[in-house]
Amino acid sequence: MILTIIYLAILLSSLIVAIVCRNSIKKRRLSIFIPYLAYVFIQEFGLNIIFDFVCPGCATHIFYNFYRPVSVILLSTFFYAIPFNLKQRKVIIWAVAIYLSVTVFTFTFIYSLLEPSPYLSGLGGLLLTCFSLITIFNYFNLDNIFQEKHWIPVVWICIGITIFYPVLNISSTFHDKLLLLNANIFGDKIYRVVPKIMSLFMYSCFIYAFYLCKKND
Asked: What is the pLDDT of residues 162-177, one digit of tens each?
């Protein structure tokens, strides 16, 4: 429960900092993070506090099966908006379109929305990780000290995403085994603890990125 509270606190903090720095983050094409973080906070607060109280132990797969494609769309919008990703914009559009098509097909003909979908989760995480690495690579090819200073917050966003999703994918791969073990850490199931711990890192990167936007204005 303590970890959950810390997790929700850092998530809410990232949203608040984004709102406070909204004019500065807008200049770096980061405005999409305000609705994204608001959506994630509302969902996580609802599932971890309200839902757990009303229906403890109930499956939450349906919520995350909707969340994953939404997060891919919103975060891909961020990568698409970055000016130095201009050459990769078509790749981003096609990759997201294929991912969404596979997602719709999977939940229509193969999986139920009520079941976990580790493969789709892994695919979405892989896409966002690739987009992050491409963005970091393009950033280091700017060769302009003023542009580098202006866009450095984007690098911190990408660092958070690049580390978060691979670890999350590894955790998702062993979801069934971790579920059978019924192991607990910090009073919570181990398969729920790993995403929260990694989220602390990613949202801390987001907060620092938003701070840099304000600082470098």
From this structure: 999 988 877 665 555 5
Cα 150 to Cα 31, 147, 163: the distances in Å are 15, 5, 23
Residue ranges covered by each domain of the chain: 2-215
The model carries a pTM of 0.88
Domain 2-215: which CATH class? Answer: mainly alpha
Angle made by CA atoms 78, 132, 39, in degrees to the nearest 5:
45
Return the pLDDT at 26.
92
For residues 149 and 216, is the Cβ–Cβ distance under 8 A?
yes
pLDDT mean across residues, the chain = 86
With a cut of 50, list the residues of the chain below it in pLDDT. none
CA angle 16, 190, 39 (to 5 degrees): 25
Kindly list the distances between the CA atom of residue 37 and the CA atoms of 70, 75, 137, 139, in Å, as whole numbers in the listed order. 12, 11, 25, 24
How far apart CA 205 and CA 209 sit, in angstroms, is 6
Classify burial at 75, counting beta carbons within 10 Å of its beta carbon; exposed 0-12, middle 13-18, buried 19 or more. buried
Cβ-based neighbour number of residue 110 at 10 Å: 11
